[in-house]
Amino acid sequence: MRTPPVVVINAFEVLEGKDEAFLASWEQARAHLAAQDGYLSTRLHRSLSPGADFRFVNVACWASAHAFQAATSTPAFRNANIPFPFHASLYEIVWEDEP
């Protein structure tokens, strides 16, 4: 039996005016993760409000929780320089509306 994919929702605290620095560090981390087994997709969202607590929110899909945990346990990822506070959690899809 195949396990359903999981969703990682990661909210980032990025001060107004720091978008470029954040995007550069996020892209490096994304490139590493995208090359790992089990990576399916990601979407990065930016708040329309420059003063939002969570200026950026990343929503990524992974084949399984195990695949995500393995990818984020690599030394290359653990040692990545992401100088912005973040809040990440794994979620399962319980309902989806598809067009």
Any overview of this molecule?
The protein is globular, with a radius of gyration of 14 Å. The chain has helices at 19-34, 65-72, 75-78; strands spanning 6-12, 39-46, 56-62, 86-92. The longest helix is centred in the first third of the chain and has 16 residues, at 19-34. The two termini are 26 Å apart. The chain contains 3 helices and 4 strands. It has 99 residues and is of the alpha+beta class.
Supply database-style keywords.
99 residues; alpha+beta; four-stranded antiparallel beta sheet; 3 helices; 4 strands
- Would you identify the regions where 5 or more consecutive residues have pLDDT less than 50? none
Report the mean per-residue pLDDT as an integer.
Answer: 92
Strand order of the largest sheet: 2-3-1-4
Number of helices: 3
Class per helix and strand makeup: alpha+beta
Kindly provide the radius of gyration, computed on alpha-carbon positions and rounded to a whole number of angstroms.
14 Å
Distance between the termini: 26 Å
Q: What is the general shape?
A: globular
Number of E strands? 4
- How is the main sheet built? 4 strands, antiparallel
List the helices and strands and how they pair.
Elements lengths: L5 E7 L6 H16 L4 E8 L9 E7 L2 H8 L2 H4 L7 E7 L7
Antiparallel strand pairs: 1-3, 1-4, 2-3
Brief overview, please?
The chain has 99 residues and is of the alpha+beta class. Helix content is 28%, strand content 29%.
